[in-house]
Amino acid sequence: MAFITEDDYSALVKNEIKNILLENYSAAKLSAAEQMAITQVKNYLSGRYNTDLIFAAEGKFRNAHIVMIVIDCTLYHLYTSIIPDRMPDIRSVRYQDAVDWLKMVGSGQAVADLPKLKDENGQEITGMKMSSKYKPNNHRW
Fold it and tell me: Rounded CA gap, 93 and 100, in Å?
C-alpha cells in the first residue's frame, strides 16, 4: 500500500485543482512526484529518525504532519513540472515551510514526534560522537 492515499489530497487541495494539475498526467506521473517528495523527506530525516518505520505506517498510524509535508512537496513538484509561472503563492510558501521544518528537525534544532534511530542494542542514537586516535593535549600554563 502506498504511503499517500487518494483521500489524503482532499484535506489540502480541492479536487478541481488536483484534476487541473493532473490533466496530462498519468498515475505513474503522480506516483513519481510522490516518490520524489518521500525521498526528499527521507533525506532530511534519515540522520536522526527511522524513516523506514515512518513510511511503513499505514492509515491512522501514519504521522499526519509527515503526510501533510509529503503532499505539499508533491504538489509543488507537480506545479513546477506543468505550470510553474501560474503556481499559487500558497504552494511555494507551504513548500518552503515544509523544507524549513525538515531542515530544523534534521539538524536537531527542533524535535519531532517520530521514531528515532536505534543502535544494534536498541538504544536511541541521541547525538553525534566524535573521537580521535590522538590523546587530548592540555596546553594551559
Answer: 10
Domain ranges across the chain:
6-107
pTM for the complete prediction? 0.80
- Residue type present at position 80: T
Q: Above pLDDT 90, what percent of the chain?
A: 36
Largest CA distance in the chain: 74
Q: Is 106:47 a contact under the CB 8 Å cutoff? A: yes
Instruction: Count the Cβ atoms, other than its own, within 10 Å of residue 121.
Output: 5
**Amino acid in the structure at residue 121:** N
Evaluate if residue 9 carries a pLDDT over 90: no
CB of 86 closer than 8 Å to CB of 34: no
What is the DSSP secondary-structure string of 24-81? T--HHHHHHHHHHHHHHHHHHHTTTB-HHHHHH--GGGS-HHHHHHHHHHHHHHHHHH
Decide: 42 and 51 in contact? Cβ < 8 Å: yes
Calculate mean pLDDT across residues 112-135.
76
Residue type, 17: I
Nearest-CA neighbor of 67 among 1, 13, 9, 117?
9
